[in-house]
Specification:
Layout (H helix, E strand, L loop, with lengths): L27 E2 L4 E2 L9 H15 L7 E4 L1 H12 L6 E5 L8 H15 L16 H14 L3 H7 L20 H14 L4 H12 L11 E5 L9 H13 L4 E3 L10 H4 L5 H9 L1
Parallel strand pairs: 3-4, 4-5, 5-6
Antiparallel strand pairs: 1-2
Helix pairs in contact: 1-2, 3-4, 3-7, 4-6
Length: 281
């Protein structure tokens, strides 16, 4: 029924994945023949949206029945609605960040950046062709992984189990709980294809997020996850009230669960009918 356009963004975190094509700090600066590093300009959600708008123009798309996305995609969704209000009929913001990054979120994003900039191998962002700061990236990704979850998820999946039978954490520092060992492995695995500078650029883009609600004309559906500890449901609910007060058509469909932020990905089917109905109105 719909023609779907799915676009990547600038500074994709998985820049070292051969399947990823992106432009960011690891890209080659044609003026120097070397990677940009931290000389790449700081980018915003509006920059991401503008590259997607260029793609839409190239495809001949003049109007979207809906723009939608989850997490940082929800920020881009609202940016689309504010930047190009005449192109966007509906905006569906899943696990939304509201209308701006609040101070608590800005501080949390700073914590994600800290392990990277404190890794000696980061070298001010000039590590291309050298040993990359993968230890810092792995530590950052561990934080991100846990922040994107909830204690209900941790309890159900790990409990207080040890990582290895007979290896009591009481008996030595190398003995870990299962959740510690899992976070370590997830961080290390993802760090292998991640670009450290890209993570910094994405964190800053999230910190800078802010849209003008008065520019938004679209019908809006906010889809928060009730157990989200990262982009709290209150962010979306607060934004819904602001938009309603100025006369926008706004709906909210909450995802019930205890998996945290990622319920907005893994449990999106729970609100499938609400999304279908919203698209039909």
């Amino acid at each position: 029924k719909y023609f779907v356009v799915s676009a990547d963004r600038l500074a994709n975190l998985g820049a070292n994945d051969p399947a990823v094509v992106t432009t960011g700090p690891s890209s080659i600066d044609p003026d120097t023949g070397k990677p940009y590093g931290m000389r790449f300009p700081i980018v915003t959600m509006r920059d991401f949206v503008n590259t997607q708008k260029a793609l839409a123009d190239a495809l001949g798309v003049r109007k979207f029945a809906a723009v939608m996305g989850a997490s940082m995609g929800s920020l881009q969704t609202m940016e689309w609605a504010a930047a190009y209000p005449d192109m966007v009929e509906r905006a569906i913001a899943v696990i939304p960040g509201g209308l701006e990054a609040d101070p608590y979120l800005i501080g949390r994003l700073n914590l994600w950046m800290a392990p990277i900039v404190n890794d000696p191998n980061w070298n001010g962002g000039d590590y291309y062709g050298r040993t990359p700061p993968n230890k810092g990236v792995a530590e950052a990704l561990k934080q991100i992984t846990l922040d994107a979850r909830h204690w209900g998820w941790a309890g159900k999946n790990f409990g207080r189990k040890w990582a290895a039978e007979g290896r009591n954490p009481l008996d030595g520092w190398d003995n870990k709980y299962l959740i510690e060992d899992t976070l370590d492995k997830v961080g290390a695995d993802r760090a292998a294809i991640a670009d450290a500078n890209a993570l910094l650029y994405l964190a800053r883009a999230n910190q800078l997020y802010q849209v003008d609600p008065k520019a938004i004309k679209a019908k809006v559906l906010f889809v928060p996850a009730k157990s989200d500890l990262l982009l709290h449901p209150a962010y979306g609910l607060r934004a819904a009230e602001v938009l309603k007060m100025q006369g926008n058509t706004v709906e909210v469909a909450e995802i019930d669960g205890d998996g945290g932020h990622l319920d907005g990905v893994f449990l999106i089917g729970k609100v499938g009918e609400q999304i279908r109905a919203f698209l039909a109105r």
